[in-house]
Automatic annotation (TrEMBL):
CDD domains registered for this protein in UniProt: MFS_STP
The UniProt record lists the keyword Transmembrane: yes
Phosphoprotein in keyword set: no
Domain Major facilitator superfamily (MFS) profile per the UniProt entry, residue ranges: 26-477
Alphabetically ordered keywords of this record: Membrane, Sugar transport, Symport, Transmembrane, Transmembrane helix, Transport
Organism for this UniProt entry: Ziziphus jujuba
Protein name: Sugar transport protein 13-like
Pfam families noted in UniProt: Sugar_tr
InterPro entries, per database record: MFS_dom, MFS_STP/MST-like_plant, MFS_sugar_transport-like, MFS_trans_sf, STP/PLT_plant, Sugar/inositol_transpt, Sugar_transporter_CS
UniProt cross-references to SUPFAM superfamilies, sorted A to Z: MFS general substrate transporter (SSF103473)
Membrane topology, as annotated: Multi-pass membrane protein
Transmembrane portions of the chain: 19-39, 81-100, 112-131, 137-158, 170-188, 200-222, 284-308, 320-342, 349-371, 383-405, 426-446, 452-473
Family statement: Belongs to the major facilitator superfamily. Sugar transporter (TC 2.A.1.1) family.
Main subcellular location of this protein, as a coarse class: membrane
Amino acid sequence: MAVGGFTTTGGGGHYEAKITPIVIISCIMAATGGLMFGYDIGISGGVTSMPHFLRKFFPAVYRKTQEGENNSNYCKYDNQGLQLFTSSLYLAALVATFFASHTTRKLGRKHTMLLAGIFFVIGSILNAAAMNFAMLVLGRILLGCGVGFGNQAVPLFLSEIAPTKIRGALNILFQLNTTIGILCANLINYGTSKIDGQAGWRISLGLAGIPALMLTVGSLIVTETPNSLIERGRLDEGKAALQRIRGTENVGPEFEDIVEASRLSAEVKHPFRNLLLPKNRPQLALALLMQFFQQFTGINAIMFYAPVLFSTLGFGGDASLYSAVITGAVNVLATCVSIYSVDRAGRRVLLLEAGVQMIVSQLLIAIILGLKLKDHDDDGMSSGWAIIVVILICIFVAAFAWSWGPLGWLIPSEIFPLETRSAGQSVAVCSNMVFTFVIAQAFLSMLCHLKYAIFVFFSAWIIVMSIFVVFLVPETKNVPIEEMTERVWKQHWFWKQYMN
């Protein structure tokens, strides 16, 4: 039974579609991949600020954090091994995404999500049971394989199964679950930090297995996308799946468009090489630059290391974890704003408004830190100024959460034609992992050397990316996914030159 309905203009007439329970359930189950991803982003920062974890795996950092041994407020956690603990996940995800591109095409979106869940379960077990640094990093690498497979398959699944009119909102479920995962991780870290001994950090790392199991079970339940079934030659199953998820027998125009796109896709023997053709350069350039700019907003530097960052700013251990919980909650609420507005206001409006908000908040943070946080002051900032910094970070996080966070995944997942969609998503995920790895590996060292100016560094990049949006990011709101070429790229003042 459908809970709503509408029609959208398609290449062959009208795409009739109802918002069916199977669409909602499938999207929610698939989006647990975001929960898995978010939990792992949030958990590492809290764990790396726990004394028992540092004493076991990073004794040099532990000694620096003890009273009387801090050379600089900005350099307490500057350690390449500690950064490798966080960044190794993203390096593994970078490699895994190329294998995920193959499985997404050959096995389907559903089975690729299943593989992601399995990798995550094993990685969580290894991390929770880690006895040495090598075992710890191996667990993170397996988690990275889960991220690579999950981030490849889930956004594609969501874009292909969702009706055009609400594609943006349903796709952002992935990002919403990511923010919920971060918030859950911050809450768990706050609780486990009270547990004496090693049990605290082991529980934090081990609980990553819960969202992993949710994705694993969910991938067994969800319906495979019609696009994937048709792409693999299973036309009857594809049409039946399309009728189920659209809640109507009248799927002829949409089915014919998918079949035609699949026929063109089958003619492409080397999809990665095909990405370099002139007609695919706009999509490729946009996918790469969206990932670059998303990471160079500085958001993951804050989300990875939130407790560490707040500790650096002079907060006590409990206060730093509590502040991380606050930013995590803001992240979740602001993502809900994006779900409501992305298919109403459009993609460009959200990106541009958030750019201004992020620039102002980061520059104010830099000014306050420059004036109020002295390099060798053991007491850090006064509580009043520290609260202002938390508020400004929340303003920054909110802006990111309703713009570059979800749209950095949504836009690349909806702009590629079917013949290069899997390869294009693979490149997007891979480039995201490259830039995430760079930021994760470099942030604590950058904080040590640039000090408060690190926020000026990131705000300068936000200015650049806002200019990029003004001139080069087209609006994709309410455009059927198979009609992007005709209705978006061929109409854009700059990108149309590549479409002939």
